[in-house]
Amino acid sequence: MSSTPVDPRRLPDVDALRGFALFGILVVNSSQMMDPYMSEGIREPGAAPWDQFALWLVTALAATKFYLLFSFLFGYSFTLQTDSAERDGARLAPRFLRRSLGLVLLGLVHAVVLFNGDILMTYGLLGLTLLWARRMTPATAAKTAAWTYGVFGAVLTAVGALTLWVDDESASDSRAIADAVAAYRGDPGTVLQANLDRLPDAFLGILVMAPGVLAAFFLGLAAGRRRLLAPGQASRSRLTGITVVGLAVGAPGAIFFASASQGPLDARWQYLGLGVGMLTAPALSAAYACFVLLLLRSSRGARTQRLLAPAGRTALTNYLTQSLVMAFIATAYGLSLYGRLGAAAILTLACALYALQLAASATYARRFRHGPAEWLLRAITMAGRPGKRDRAATPRPT
């Protein structure tokens, strides 16, 4: 059989970072899809020590960090789409508007059928700001990102501090857990109805996440304008410095966030912990990204790229597949294990699924240029069936 080569215009570092970020998205979303306590944002009474530790790790190392990395890459990729439109002699705005519409439609289906914690609608709606900001200089975009996120994090932390003096009212928590368990273990109809009932929360989540997502968009736009992820642009010394500083700033905030959210701190610290965690999350996200880039520039760089980049090239397909698999395991679509597995088991499942996705993506990339979801989104963006050069179809025997 003939093989489909990788598009030479793609940036391997961007694909590898996106493939890496899929893991963090998976472990957070899996916990929210399968654990009613995690989904409701409350602590599970009487959880086993290993489950408490697993949730603590997920909160400290993954929660709030990876959606920022994905958002940064979305902003960076916007500059690549701009370049592509210029090469093709096409107008950027119609293309990007169709792409945004495609993301919103995919996200709406995803939120209603599989998981109401969808991020695609957020990108489709908030991504429109990139059209407005496309003529920003890199310096202006970076300053806008810093001010947007700084004010957001400071306000969230201040509000969290005020809640230290507010009594915790959790009488309805047990009923919310029971209702969620009944719905997701019921039948496919009750699953759909539960997701529909939570759809307003999904739109509220877009508003809550907007400052962080927008700041990451603008930072990605600035980095894309300067081609910081192009081959040979970032030096090892600079990447090492960002990694060290990012860990020094981000790790203490992540530890406090996890300790306030999952213990040992009292539950009244939860909102302050969230504020501090959000305020310091970009530092840890930057440390993660730069560490992966350092690996790509090390003696293991080729191996790391082969491992991560194929998953990153099919990130949309992998993201939707993660939700499909976890929804099958958790809900009445399949095994109805919602609320029946501890956090440690869920984390183990997520790691196993990610390993399978890495292997499957590498195999798939040898034969196809785009994943199915990527092909569909590209067809919407181009307002027609992609050409033979971009087609994600089964190769013909030679």
Automatic annotation (TrEMBL):
Keywords: Membrane, Transmembrane, Transmembrane helix. The chain crosses the membrane at residues 53-76, 119-134, 146-166, 202-223, 239-259, 271-296, 316-335, 341-360. Residues 223-382 form the DUF418 domain. The keyword Repressor does not apply. Coiled coil: none annotated. Pfam families: DUF418. It comes from the Bacteria. The keyword Cell cycle does not apply. This is DUF418 domain-containing protein.
